[in-house]
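Is manganese (II) ion placement plausible here? Inputs below.
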Amino acid sequence: MLSSHPAFSEAAYSAASFLKEHDNFLLLTHAHPDGDTVGSAFALAMALRECGKTAYVLPDPLSRKDFLPYFASVAPEGDLPSDLTLVTVDVADGALLPEWSVKYLPEVKCVIDHHTSNRVDCALKCVDSKAAATAEIIFEIVHLLDLPLSATVAGGIYMALMTDTGCFKYSNVRPQTLLYASEALAAGADAFGLARKLFMKKAPARMKVESHVIAGFRYFAEGKITMASISLAEIAAMNAIEDDIGGLASLTVIPETTEIGIFLREMAPDEVKVSVRTDTYVDAAALCAKFGGGGHVRAAGCTLKNTTLEEAFTLIREEAEKSLSC
Ligand SMILES: [Mn+2]
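Reply from A.M.:
I modeled the complex. Tokens:
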């Protein structure tokens, strides 16, 4: 582990002292889990186990299949201990918990996250909005628990860092991101294996969905806004599964003229999930906040209920156009 390092976050210090005081943990991840919520929760659970504590992550059977082994290895076995301490990891808002986790929300005792707009109702919020991924906080916590970084924990941290930075490309990358990734690599994280599996190789069905989405791009404001959507009917027609649909939003900000990329996914006939990615100056979180959502300055989201896909498309386009001139 690091002999000298940049100052760790307040979030990591308060989380580490809280974690030291308790013994049986159930960690909660957000719905439609990404590599940060999964990798961070997995790494934290493993680290707590290395401290001799009991720690589980509540499984997500709907997760993309690459994440299922992570969930399986830290899933609760048999009856849960009665004195569980609930902790959310990378969950920006209680509304983002999967439906089977919502019942635990009132019992959450600690929030570990990097979303500025964190809205989970909890007394202890360990939020470092400067961290590129929640995994940066987890790395610091592991250090503060006086644990050597094991290859297992390092693997979860590396996956999470890689995911939330688009393979270390996004504007959220800071010196700590690469320093902690380097430490994770030195500790045995399979950097190429993870990059290959999660980012470089894609199933034929995924390629088909991506080309369909790109072919359907619509440009507004002289190309400064790119929008794409996928309906339930299109998902059914392409036989697409969750693995084929997640993370499509990042495609919308690729066109070189585009400042705001918007991806809409029809979740139900009257419910639309909107993901916004911005290039250099528009605040994606502020745009999504207009619809009750939030996230980060370059990547954010919201869900529009009682709204059709077409209505949502128009609503978000109008707000996006306004945000260009702010
Ligand atoms: Mn994250």
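Short version: The radius of gyration is 19 Å.
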